[in-house]
């Protein structure tokens, strides 16, 4: 019934991270996968990526933080009531997490669901 959605590549990638960054990345990964049964986990561009009818989000660990990035983040800014999204790129935005306690589960879950909706709506328009 509940198929394994974690990929071994991402498991290995996370296992090699420093302890504090690993705990943030693991927590964010769990939130992402629990936000929708439709999301697919892949390891590309040297980091975990999550997609459903297109790219949704990614995890980008660094030495002192983890970025939870949204491929169409510029379209999510208006729905980001907690003002978590950062960045000035053409389309991408991210949430920078430096400590486990900074993770706002409900706000992040909502942004992921909104990102999935963007892809679903885009797919409908194109069909």
In brief:
With 127 residues, the chain is α+β, with helices and mostly antiparallel strands. Helices cover 37% and strands 21% of the residues. Helix 2 packs across helix 3 (105-126).
**What's the CATH class, please?**
Alpha Beta
CATH topology: Aspartate Aminotransferase, domain 1
CA-CA gap between termini: 30 Å
Secondary structural class: alpha+beta
CATH arch. level architecture: Alpha-Beta Complex
- What is the average per-residue confidence, as pLDDT, rounded to a whole number? 92
Question: What's the β-strand tally?
Answer: 5
Largest sheet: 5 strands, antiparallel
Range of strand content? 15-25%
Task: Work out the count of structural domains.
Answer: 1
Poorly predicted segments: none
Order of helices and strands: HHEEEEEH
Number of helices: 3
Please bin the fraction of helical residues.
25-40%
Q: Assign an overall shape.
A: globular
Strand order of the largest sheet: 1-2-3-4-5
InterPro entries: YdhG-like (IPR014922)
Domain YdhG-like: 23-116
Organism: Sporosarcina ureae
Protein name: YdhG-like domain-containing protein
Folded structure, characterized:
The chain has 127 residues and is an alpha+beta fold. The protein has one domain: Alpha-Beta Complex (Aspartate Aminotransferase, domain 1). Helix content is 37%, strand content 21%. It has helices spanning 8-15, 19-35, 105-126; strands spanning 40-44, 47-51, 55-61, 66-70, 93-97. It has a five-stranded antiparallel sheet. The radius of gyration is 14 Å and the shape is globular. The mean pLDDT is 92.
